[in-house]
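Predict structure. Input: GMP synthase (Glutamine-hydrolyzing), 248 residues.
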Amino acid sequence: MGRFILISTREHDLAASDEVRGVLDASGLDADALRVIRLEREPLGSLDGLGLEDCPGIILGGSPFNASDHPSTKSATQLRCEADLSRLLDVLVAEDFPFLGACYGVGTLGTHQGGRVDTHFGEPVGTSRIRLTDQGRRDPLLAGLPEEFDAFVGHKEAVSELPESAVLLADSAACPVQMFRVKSNLYATQFHPELDPAGLAQRIMIYRDAGYFPPQDAQRLHDEAMAALVEWPALILRNFVRRYGAES
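Output follows.
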């Protein structure tokens, strides 16, 4: 079996390394079965160099970037990352290639497919009660999950209008698009399937000045994260690896 690819756009090294840990722990992959690309460090280059023919699937991690920000406010790094991801998604969507984007994946895949991504349905850092739709209950990536479960969230933007090409798989009371699928094999979640309590607590302290919450709330949110019981979302990553790893 070839290696899965995790694409990261996190400039903070500690956040990026813990994202790798979270993906490995949640998916059950060994470290040598995951290739990590730090896209914020260097351009993606030729897609031929990715070795997609031997790759079972691509995972896109979360990001401090917001797809819906006005282009004039985006850094050169963000604009380059977005251009690279759009170019990659051109190929992945055309080939119905296995893809799972977490949080930033909703904005990236949603924008690529013509959905509306804006700040109307942002959620504060913490837990959100996720509800599967009828389509979600039948989707193989959600096999074994209950119809409702808690997941970690924290995002400034969300999909407010689903792309015509997408199938809604999950929602929540505060955010109408928590997970969707394009074609048969491309998925995006607004919540974080890779996060455990320690991972969220660490990100809270790393991004305490990034505008997700008042900085003075960081310690309280950290403590609430550590006390949270969030266990089901990791199964999505395990299902992704089992489904596409077995097919490669």
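Residues 3 and 33 are 5 Å apart (CA to CA).
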